[in-house]
Amino acid sequence: MLLRLAWRNVWRNRLRSSIMVAAMVFGLLGAVLMSGFVIAMTNSMIENAIKYQTSHLQLHNPKFIVGEELAAWLPEADGLATQIRQQPGVAAVTVRQLVDGMLASAASTRGVRINGIDLEQEVAVTALAESLAEGGLLPADGRNPIMVSRRNAERLNLRIGSKVVLTFTDAGGEVTGAAFRVCGFFKTPLSGFDDANVYVRRSDLAGLTGLDQAHELAVRLESDALSDQVKTALVALVGAQATVRDWGEVQPILAAMTASVDQTNSILAAVFMAALGFGIVNIMLMSVFERTREFGVLMATGMTKAKVLTLIIIEALFLGGSGGLLGMAVSWLVLALLGRVGLPFGAMAEGLGVYGVDTVLYPEVPGSYYLSMFALVLVTSLLAAFYPARQILKKSPVEALTERH
Amino acid sequence: MSIVVDQLTRIYNPDTDFPITAVNNVSLEVKPGEFVAVMGPSGSGKTTLLNMLGGIDRPSSGTVRIDDSDITALGDKELISFRRDNIGFIFQDFSLLPVLTAKENVEFVMQLQGRSHVECATRSLQLLNDVGLGDRLNCVPGKLSGGQQQRVAVARALAPKPKFVLADEPTANLDAVTTRDLLDIMQQLNEKEGVTFIFSTHDPRVIERARRVIVFEDGIIKEDRVQ
Ligand SMILES: Nc1ncnc2c1ncn2[C@@H]1O[C@H](COP(=O)(O)OP(=O)(O)OP(=O)(O)O)[C@@H](O)[C@H]1O
Ligand SMILES: [Mg+2]
Questions:
Q1: pLDDT tens for residues A337-368?
Q2: What secondary structure does DSSP assign to B69-104, as a single string?
Q3: Which residue among A166, B47, B60, B149 has its CA within the 20 to 30 Å range from the CA of A242?
Q4: A3–B contact, CB cutoff 8 A
Q5: SS3 for A141?
Q6: What fold is seen in the domain B3-226?
Q7: Is any Cβ of chain A less than 8 angstroms from the Cβ of B51?
Q8: What is the strand order of the sheet B3-12 is part of?
Q9: Domain limits of chain B?
Q10: pTM of this prediction?
């Protein structure tokens, strides 16, 4: 009967309760959408970083990480790669020689990292093939082909077939340079990465640097979840001769940004809950005050203060729960729709390209997010019931009975 | 069951410059099954007296003994369960819960007592039949006339099988015919259930029907007659 009484009391003032529920629906939708975007954005950043840039794991000479010098090569890199390919969970490994240098055209110059790669290995690990925007990938024959990013091509005024000059320091410490011919443009969602990288054949680069060694192994795994497990296995395999890092260690800034997602979502939830709490306090205060006399009658006829408190709490829970459930349902529907259609990010995507955010986002939140939001809604409603309840409970039955509105 | 009131006094605002002695050293006894009217002009202290008899207000001094237990000495919690099990209230403005049907209103107090659903259902049905509302069980108060609402209130007051019923001006909002019907019903139930009724009133038609009339003035009993 208490439940029935509470439920009917909530809908006694239908307009008022409906407005509250509507406010909750929109508030929740806002919070869920924001969280969905933040999560989608971060996921997209991580995915893109892994896909185009860092792969799941990277191995380097420990000194390379500190100084990134040509001399800090990884001994036996190709043999190591073969060993790693046999590890469970490993999908593919690519071996790279890396040199920092200058990329020059007739028009301009840019500092870049020259990635000397085996095309076949590279496309099995990163999405280089997918990111081809124009022209072709590095051919197996022909003299000194090079792939540059579309961004650099625009800056340096390059076309397919244009000639560029790469300048860098060779293994003997001499500055050396060579002419390359542009065979293709690539474009990844990571504008910072695009600005800073060019691809040439590893054999061409080795010939020019005079170093027949490699600096970097990039490992793609069968799934993201295997990262920690395989990393541990690789650390055991390579010992002190190489440092094994996952994407988060390679890109600490990105890792820090994604780590703050939970925090961002908590703040969003807290702001929403605060608004909700005050809303419920307000509604319940109004509703309780206008029923003062009714509570007086209830107390006179033998309803204990505990029961009165329970009644008010249940009413608040019903009100909050209604808004919460409806809000969740609407949010879920909207997210399901946006998750299918996607939301074009347009102009903002350019700015976020530095962090590798896709131009179309598919907002999503995990199921547990709905559960915890709903639990929070209920807890907030519960807490919000106490202040209004106190206003009634501090009155004696006669005081409540004689109060007129 | 008897009510023994001994030197009961209620002073409002006792610590101010204008204390109001609403009930002044009143002693009286009500025997089981009585049908008593407390009459007197406005402000004479009728409501105050009834509130103290019902244990919803505490006297400044004096005692109210109901069947040898002094309710003025009970703690808040004990007083609530005492009221729930022993005293029925009828209010001038009916004061039914607007969201509950007639039947639910009558059952609610019984459920607070922890009675079984079956018992609540049978008793509420029987009482609503007694007050002539057997065909209005599932109406909410808003769909009932004032007289019908007050009859539901009478059924509600009697539902928990109280020892006595307190009614503060129960007919003040009712017209003559409805008043007569209500009094008939109260009188029948007084006889049938053996419940003591104590009500306050200005209404001469009500006073006529009472077997005992206590005339109240300035917080003092002016006259106490049996008719
Ligand atoms: N809460 C209160 N605070 C202060 N004075 C009060 C309070 N309640 C009643 N009084 C005063 O006590 C006196 C008795 O009031 P009471 O309500 O008991 O009279 P009554 O006989 O019921 O009057 P009525 O016929 O108008 O209902 C009045 O003078 C009234 O003003
Ligand atoms: Mg009065």
A1: 988 888 776 656 555 655 667 778 888 888 99
A2: EEGGGS-HHHHHHHHHHHEEEE-TT----TTS-HHH
A3: A166
A4: no
A5: coil
A6: Rossmann fold (3.40.50)
A7: yes
A8: B20-30, B3-12, B61-66, B69-70
A9: 3-226
A10: 0.85
